[in-house]
Amino acid sequence: MHPNPAFRHEDRALLEALIAEIGFGMVFAATADGPRVAHVPLHYTGDGAVQFHLARGNALVRHIDGATALVVINGPDGYVSPRWYADAAQVPTWNYVALELEGRVRRMDQDGLEALLETLSATNEARIVEGEPWTMDKTPPDTLRKLMGAIVGFELEIMAWRPTFKLSQNKGADERARVAAGLEAEGSPAIAELMRRLVP
Questions:
Q1: CA atoms of 136 and 36, how far apart (whole Å)
Q2: Helical (H) or strand (E) element with 162
Q3: In 10 A of CB 197, how many CB atoms?
Q4: Global pTM?
Q5: Residues contacting 87, CB < 8 A, separation 6+
Q6: What is the pLDDT of residue 2?
Q7: Residues with Cβ < 8 Å from 8, sequence gap 6 or more?
Q8: Measured distance CA(172)–CA(84) in Å, rounded
Q9: Could you tell me which Gene3D superfamilies the record lists for this protein (predicted)?
Q10: What is the homologous superfamily of the domain 5-198 according to CATH?
Q11: Cβ-contact 136, 144 below 8 angstroms
Q12: What's the whole-number average pLDDT of the chain?
């Protein structure tokens, strides 16, 4: 989390929407074997928890049940060139959106894992415009059992939300407008749009 309080954004609905829209993040934990990270699809439960699954062979599986972990979701980002400022006494920086979620992890039972997989696939299949959505019942039961046996489901109960929305809030409105235009022109329209919509 960036230390500048100007870059905080405490709108919980926006943070929840960020998790739902991106749907993917990283789980970090300190283990006896050293720090470990896993890259995972995420589901926000709506009641203060995020769910994810790991391959049974992932190094985190042996350590994470009952542990405190950190989930990080990265949103849009973009390089900010000093040439976009009217003030020449500037240096390069990076605008970005990131959300850190800290909490205690618990292992899910098999029913919970199956519900998570159904939710994840239904959510992501709904984003595909063409064709009929894939559902778990299209997989032969023996194959599905074997595949589910190779993964483990977890739920992190969120104890701390730490968002960073670094959108040039520390610059004047004219400077922000130039930066947003520069980011958009250089192929980062999502972060430019957030700058325009979220910073007064």
A1: 30
A2: strand 151-166
A3: 8
A4: 0.92
A5: 175
A6: 85
A7: 163, 164, 165
A8: 13
A9: Electron Transport, Fmn-binding Protein, Chain A
A10: Electron Transport, Fmn-binding Protein; Chain A (2.30.110.10)
A11: yes
A12: 95
